[in-house]
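Please produce the structure of this protein holding zinc ion.
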Amino acid sequence: MTTKEGGKKAGTVAKYNTNLRAEVKTYVSADPRAFVHSREWKKIMAGDPVEINPSVGHGMKVMTVTEWSARWKRNEDFPDCLACGSLNTKEHHFIQTWCRGNRKWESETLCLDCHNFSWRSYVDPEFTTPAEHEKERWGKMLEGNKALGVEN
Ligand SMILES: [Zn+2]
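Below is the modeled complex.
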């Protein structure tokens, strides 16, 4: 299993957003659904200072939405805002998990025009967590032993 946060997996044959076999769940909200940045977003909306990115400076500053989100990039796979259709969006949350070739991912973008967040999440129908997979494997092994008459 591999989990990557904040970046797309490069150089792999399968892509997170191609040959989707289930529906992408979507959700539009005025506040981020992802926990990341949710406290800062409240401050930005209230006009309170937020922490300056360490690569730019230090301390706190009152920022506009554009200034605050300047380092985020648009997700070219899902560039449109689910609320107003604008392409003026920035992705602030992306996480994908691969387990034996099955995928699970979530993405959330902020629209700079209407300030709504667009959430998208997807999971392959066969996706199981490594823990679930282990349990299944043990279950099958025990069943197999019973069939062979092996004492447990
Ligand atoms: Zn919008």
